[in-house]
Write a structure and sequence with these properties.
- It contains 5 helices and 7 strands, in the order βαβββαβαβαβα.
Length: 177
């Protein structure tokens, strides 16, 4: 079994919960206090082994997770942060549907730098979300543009986070075919 390091980026605008998702996933904790990411923060987590779809061998990924500060505008430096990524979680805040539309140009820029990267679309803050068809539709439309799946998560409760990263792991394996 081989251990493969994979760079993963969290994409999204200011305050969609990227840092909280990483904290919950990597350290299994949630903090009510909001801390703004300045620049980038890199964490790592060993993923469970998976059976590779293209060669049948067992592979295990070490995710190097790049939490990039809210991308309200593109700083040329952001392109450098994206380089070499195998995948990304594109994160929108379910309680602020406008963050879905703002995510599209970020995903487009990310995919222009990493055209073979795997992408999973995340609707975060499920614990605060009042179900809304327009929001679901917006997420599905964004995900469809990048052949991505939609996952609903809550950094506060932990709902869906492990599944989202595991899905990304499988998508990365499939993109390596």
């Amino acid at each position: 079994m081989g251990l493969l390091k994979q760079k993963i980026c969290l994409l999204g605008t200011f305050a969609v919960g990227k840092t909280s998702l990483v904290e919950r996933f990597v350290n299994e904790r949630f903090d009510e206090k909001y801390l703004t990411t300045v620049g980038i923060s890199v964490s790592q987590k060993l993923m469970p082994p998976i059976q590779s779809r293209h060669n049948g061998r067992t592979v295990q990924y070490m995710f190097l997770i790049w939490d990039i500060a809210g991308l309200e505008k593109f700083d040329p430096m952001v392109i450098n942060y994206f380089r070499g990524a195998s995948g990304a979680l594109a994160v929108a805040d379910l309680t602020r549907p406008e963050t879905i539309g703002r995510l599209e140009p970020i995903c487009k820029k990310f995919m222009s730098v990493n055209p073979h990267a795997a992408l999973v679309t995340i609707g975060n803050k499920l614990d605060l979300f009042k179900d809304d068809d327009a929001t679901h539709s917006g997420l599905k439309k964004l995900a469809s543009a990048y052949s991505s799946e939609v996952m609903l998560t809550s950094a506060k409760s932990g709902h869906g986070i492990e599944a989202a990263f595991n899905l990304l792991s499988h998508r990365i394996d499939a993109s390596n075919e």
